[in-house]
Structures are given as C-alpha cells and as structure tokens.
Amino acid sequence: MNYSNIIKEVGRGKHHARDLDPSTAKELYRAILAGQVPDLELGGLLIAFRIKGEAEGEMLGFYEAMQEQVMALQAPVDMPPPVVIPSYNGARKQANLTPLLALALSRLGFPVVVHGVTEDPNRVTSAEIFHELGIAPQLSVLAAQSALVMGSGPVFIPVAQLCPPLDSQLTLRWRMGVRNSAHTLAKLATPFHHHVHLRLSSVSHPEYITRVGGFFRAINSSALLMSGTEGETYANPQRMSRIFGLHQGEQRLLLDPLLYPLPPLEQLPVARDAVTTARWTEACLRGEFALPQAIRLQLACILTATGQATDITPALEYIDRIISRC
Predict the structure, then answer these.
(1) Same-domain pairing of 20 and 167
(2) Residue 46 is part of which domain span?
(3) Same domain for 63 and 87
(4) The pLDDT of residue 58
(5) What pLDDT digit, counting tens, does each position of 21-40 carry?
(6) Contact between residue 25 and residue 58 where contact means Cβ atoms under 8 Å apart
(7) Is residue 72 part of a domain?
(8) Which contacts (CB < 8 Å, 24+ apart) does range 33-41 have?
(9) Residue pLDDT, tens place only, 207-227
(10) CA angle 5, 6, 11 (to 5 degrees)
C-alpha cells in the first residue's frame, strides 16, 4: 500500500480529511495488525485517525480486519446466548462493578466472556478484581472453551490472548501518549464469530449512541448499548442512563431511567481498590448488601434482549428470585 497517499487523505485535519472506503480501510488495518507499516507512517496514521475520527465505513473495515485475528470460541449448547463484556477502562473515581455484573449474569445461567487489559497504571482493572475473587485468566483457546462449557463462572480472557496484534496496538498508547483506533475496536471484539450472542457496549457521550448503534445494525449483531461508567459497560449505580437493545438490524429503547428512578442511598464499595471491591462484590452476592438498582435494571434488560424474559418487570422478579437463592 502507498501509505503516503493514505496519510494525505486522512491527515488533512478534522474538517478537510477524506474518509477511506471500507475495503481500503480493511486492507490498511490488516497491514497495521501484521506489523507491516513502518513506525513513522504508523504514527502519522494513528494520529490522523485520532484527530479525524473513524467514519462508519472505516470502522467497519477496521473491524473486519481485527476479527480475522480474534480468538474463536463455540457457544455452549442448551444454554442462553453468551454475553460478551469488554473491559478496557477500569476504575478511576469509583469502584469497578464489571466483575459483579459478570458474576450476576453467570448466576442467571448465562455463559459470560469478559475480555480486556490486565493492568493500567492509573486505574483498577477488572482483571485485578477477578484475581482477588479467585478467577484466573484463560490463556488459550482450549482453556477458555473448557471454562465456558463448564459454566462455573465468568471467563476472563486478556486481550493479549484474545487478539495479540490488537494488544500491541493498545500498548502504543503509553508510547504515544494518546489512545488510537484500537481502543474503540477492542470494545467491539467478540470471540463468537458465527454464533448468536449479546455484546455489551458503552459510549462516553450520548451522541455516540446513534453512531455505535449504526455499526451494530451494519453488521446485523445483537447488542446492549448505553452510556458507560468511566468507560466500562456496567450501569452507573449513581446515574442511570437509557439502555437500548439492537437485534436483527433494529434498535429499540429497553429502559427509560425516568420510569425507574434509582434509590437515593445505596451501599457501595468504600474504596475503588481491587481488594475492597472484590470483598464487597462477594458480600453483595451473599446478600449482605442489596444488588445496586442500576445493575438489577441492566440485568433485566439483558434478560429481555436475549428473550429470556418478556419485559423488565418479570425480569426483575426473576433476578431477585435467582440471586437471593444462591
């Protein structure tokens, strides 16, 4: 590929850059993941897309190239559709409840795959909390598939195993000082290439709901879409947002927070470190603390989106019955 010509197209600034067509974008990202782009040109491309933003067609091409490199798993038979949870941000200001969400989904009978980074110098990752909970990462396809079929709990796969070339792109953040396209793509990755499943997806700004929703419609994939909590995909226990479901190319509002106000005071972890969060998570699942209302509502939306419940109200009743029984 002529990288100089591509940089001329995408590197003209936010208002003058031109978008690549999906096939060119796919070929370009294949080359990036294969390590074929020289460092100087790679840096120019990553900064250009950081400034310009990826167009829908470019994101689709990048995604297709990435998925060619992503670990492939088989969905367990005679179980609900698997739920895939990306976890790449961790906790900066409040405790990370992604592991709580994953464990609650497992109790409800869902196969659950969480994938993400294992460490971040500035945040508390889900991987660190899973470690404190005694949940080891799965480091091979065989190990991940076996853990998934056993159904004993959520399966955590580090991105270095899920898609090694993508992990290499993510780590460039610490060399360049800013994020790049890989940080968006990682949250879209799935190991279930040809199986029905549900992806949890979050956005940092409400205006991106339309953009990300358009992506899932373009690939005809099922997803739960909402504003995230510090970049994580669990519902914020302090500020509930709208939750949308995407299925067979259609997007619909599953939950309007105005109809389900959050209680004013809930027992949450007193600190955001991994040990405190893990111990609180265990206590919450033992029934010592109430499951945060935002998490209950998100679980109800997942049950509804996957056809395990007809609506939010019966889903909430089912959640309370199953979680309290464990």
Answers:
(1) no
(2) 3-67
(3) no
(4) 95
(5) 999 999 999 999 999 999 99
(6) yes
(7) no
(8) 33/65, 33/66, 33/69, 33/165, 33/166, 33/169, 34/165, 35/165, 35/168, 37/3, 38/3, 41/3, 41/4, 41/7
(9) 778 889 999 999 999 999 999
(10) 105
